[in-house]
Task: inverse folding
């Protein structure tokens, strides 16, 4: 049929990867040690241990938990360790604030992603800045894909930037 519109992009056999798919969507809960300090500055061992003993740890079950201190107080390492010993039912435990937790979970997802479906394929990585540490994400993804893909491109199929082509 003359004049028929043909979607060349769809017929090109290009696999697309959108890094936004690796962003954590599971519940994320933080514990700010600042709230447990005397005058938000000093950790009193007796008070801290009492809070740990009385706290309902079940609220963290199956959730990603991040532990941090939002002020410049000096928190002894054992305090973090004590919290972790009570968070064993959590999905994961991360040291750092919410942004650090989101980044750690994103990179865990990216690094643990099964990539064997992309062996000898033409792959397009969509541009996205709504991910944690985008440049690092592109470096990690490229490092994983280059050994297995036939071609690697960046952008959109209609305006792709070639990044890598396997030598014949």
Result:
């Amino acid at each position: 049929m003359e004049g028929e519109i043909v979607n060349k992009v769809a017929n090109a056999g290009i696999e697309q990867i959108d890094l936004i798919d690796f962003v954590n969507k599971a519940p994320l809960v933080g514990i700010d040690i600042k709230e447990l300090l005397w005058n938000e500055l000093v950790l009193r061992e007796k008070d801290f241990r009492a809070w740990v003993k009385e706290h309902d740890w079940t609220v963290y079950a199956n959730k990603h938990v991040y532990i941090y201190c939002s002020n410049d107080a000096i928190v002894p390492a054992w305090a973090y360790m004590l919290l972790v010993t009570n968070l064993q039912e959590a999905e994961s435990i991360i040291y750092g604030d919410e942004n650090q937790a989101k980044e750690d979970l994103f990179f865990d997802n990216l690094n643990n992603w099964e990539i064997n479906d992309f062996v000898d394929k033409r792959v397009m990585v969509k541009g996205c800045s709504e991910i944690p540490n985008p440049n690092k994400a592109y470096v990690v993804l490229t490092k994983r894909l280059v050994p297995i893909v036939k071609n690697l491109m960046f952008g959109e199929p209609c305006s792709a930037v070639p990044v890598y082509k396997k030598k014949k």
